[in-house]
């Protein structure tokens, strides 16, 4: 069980749009808060290793996001409150939609950072969620944002946005596997953003993420194939030059052999030499 004790004070600190609301609006949200907590444990396998500040941000904003459609909200000078008088007009749909978008942005951002930080845990990387989802060098919305995969009109990538990008990310990851071999890629995936990665591995992961992001952007028609080749060549040159000492799994792979294969060249001293 997560050791999390929700309070109205903490809720209003995280969701200032409801900071001057009466006690009953917090009462409406307690069920949603408990449900979000249960989902955090059951779906994302969160433990008490999750940073408290980020967990509060995620739980309260996600609970508010889910609760808003069930509330009759009015706009106030400082935010929103629940309609308690039939003579008061509800807040406009546009304002409510903007509120929900902001709540979701904060919740998704906090959850993405929690999962990112849990990579450094001794136990969470072996969890069901990590085994199913931490299978790529770009596996969180946080990475998609960092490497420029948000829509041109936004700087935010939600978990829903990330799912729409997933086929393109999977294609980019498959290209990296062809380049390095499955074993070396799996090794880098397991080491990413943990204390166990070396400086050389960290640099390789960064170059590969840039290559993957460029690959995705090309799929989306936002960069040219030439940019993909340049990013690939930079990543390959760095890893290949360090293969013997730092990337032994790649050095021993069929991918390495394929990358260094030299086609047969007919020469004048070859008994089968012929003049064209």
Explain how this protein is built.
The protein is mainly alpha-helical. The chain folds into 2 domains: 8-124, no CATH class; 135-259, no CATH class. It is 59% helix and 2% strand. Strands 1-2 form a two-stranded antiparallel ribbon. Strand 1 and strand 2 form a beta hairpin. Residues 79-89 have low confidence and may be disordered.
What structural keywords apply?
single chain, 276 residues, mainly alpha, two-stranded antiparallel sheet, elongated
List the helices and strands and how they pair.
Elements: H1 8-14, H2 23-42, H3 52-67, E1 73-75, E2 80-82, H4 93-117, H5 128-133, H6 141-146, H7 159-180, H8 182-191, H9 199-219, H10 225-241, H11 243-246, H12 248-251, H13 254-259
Antiparallel strand pairs: 1-2
Helix pairs in contact: 2-3, 3-4, 7-8, 7-9, 9-10
Summarize the structure.
Helix content is 59%, strand content 2%. It is mostly helical.
What's the β-strand tally? 2
What is the averaged pLDDT score?
A: 88
- Record the strand order, biggest sheet: 1-2
Number of helices, counting only DSSP H or I runs of 4 residues or more: 13
The run of helices and strands is HHHEEHHHHHHHHHH
State the helicity in percent bands. Answer: 55-70%
* Class of secondary structure makeup: mainly alpha
What Rg do the Cα atoms give?
A: 25 Å
Q: Give the N-terminus to C-terminus distance in angstroms.
A: 77 Å
- Largest beta-sheet characterization: 2 strands, antiparallel
